Amino acid sequence: MRKKSRTSEPSLDDPLWRPVDEEHKLLSQRLGNRQLAHVDLNQALAEGRVRTMRRQIKGGEPEPMLPDFWAHRDLVIHANGSFTRIHGGPPDPGSFVYFLWHPDVEKVWPALRQVDNEVTPVRAKPGTKPRGDWYTLIAQWLIAVAADDPKRLRNVDVLVVEATAFLQDEINWSPANAKDLRKKIVELLILVPR
What we know:
It is a single chain. The protein is α+β, with helices and mostly antiparallel strands. It folds into 2 domains: 17-115, no CATH class; 134-189, no CATH class. The protein has 7 helices and 6 strands. The strands form 2 sheets. Strands 1-6-2-3 form a 4-stranded antiparallel β-sheet. A two-stranded antiparallel ribbon has the order 4-5. Strand 2 and strand 3 (63-65) form a beta hairpin. Helix 1 packs across helix 2 and helix 6 (156-171) crosses helix 7. It is elongated, with a radius of gyration of 18 Å. Mean pLDDT is 78; it is low at 1-5 and 115-120.
């Protein structure tokens, strides 16, 4: 059964496009089985219940993927989550990173909202008010880190410690709970190849 076409399509640069491997990990946790997650995800893609897009690894613009693309293809996510392959159908030239529209994923599998704590945007909690725009400062700092030494982006735990020190130096404030800072860093690094 095909889903009715949607009237407004999301912008392809919206941060709610999440890498397939992240969404698959959440689905696997929810279902307790990687293989069932593969089956359910591929069925949802073929039926058009979850929108997808892809970006070529070596540059290029993001492009939406229609349900017809998935009719005779299956996404295969490797156990280590390092990359995603497509099986079946005509050859898919080029190397791509595939993304799922997270609101569709949440609609198809509502319980994933409870599991998704690693990539949920940080919400300000009551307490000492942050000084300045710390989100922007952290984003600027991460850009500088990436330009200086991209390999540093691989270790989020070290980044949290360094970011805390950076915020203390810059605005004499950092989040009381390092978990909030970690979530923000993970959120900012979602589309950054590491």
